[in-house]
Amino acid sequence: MSDPRLDELAEGARNRGLKLVRSRVRTPGKRRFGKVGLTDANGQAVFGMDAKGPTGTPDEVEDYLRNLGAKDWGASLDVAVLPRRKKPKKVAREAANDTDSRPARAAPPRPTAKPKPQVREARPGDAPRIVQLIDQLGHPIDDKQVRRNLTLLKKLGETPLVATLDTDVVGLIGLHRMVTIHRDAPVGRIPVLVVAEEARGHGLGRLLVDAAEQWCRKQGCKLIEVTSNDRRAEAHAFYRHLGYERTSIRFFKKL
Fold first, then answer.
1. I need a labelling partner for 139 at 20 to 30 A (CA). Which of 48, 150, 186, 231 fits?
2. Of 181 and 58, which is predicted with more confidence?
3. Which domains does the chain have, with CATH numbers?
């Protein structure tokens, strides 16, 4: 019988492009009984492994995956909390000395304030930048089509949202409200989410998802769903971190 906890660890490892290796020792009390470790896609040891096999405990592997997940979120869709500012080191004051003729030390320059991220509805003038963002997802599209899509989505009341730093558009999230025959309330959907590579590290992914969830609540939705390509393991970890669960497999067919 499989161990549910180890199955969850194996799933978490796969979401990060890793493989959970379980000890082959089946006799309780022996040295490697119950041990687990992680390898990469090529079978190279990543954590909790030595030449003879797994050496880590499930708790140690779980902690490693959790920490690795936080790094992945920040590197992919930017869910990491803004890094804490380091407190400046206090400079010890020198004892007063009337005969000291050395010039007073100049005050250190004030740190430049980081731009504050904002979220607003997308505009037709954002089309060139939206084209660049969508291209990062592997979906080439031109300015004219983006403008046409924005016009149609505005009529439907589903204008996408963009994230900005200063005046630069650096993130995009789509909005969709869907009524189905088998549910008692509309279903919200996030059809697209992307943050520019150069803008990661400001919490924009989380900010955009929060805004989308608020929009869905106002539309009367009781459920929100996300579609994400099977290859985007980092994105899967990001959504799991925000409380989303994998419940189905998506199929599509070109017409």
1. 186
2. 181
3. 4-76 (no CATH), 117-241 (3.40.630.30)
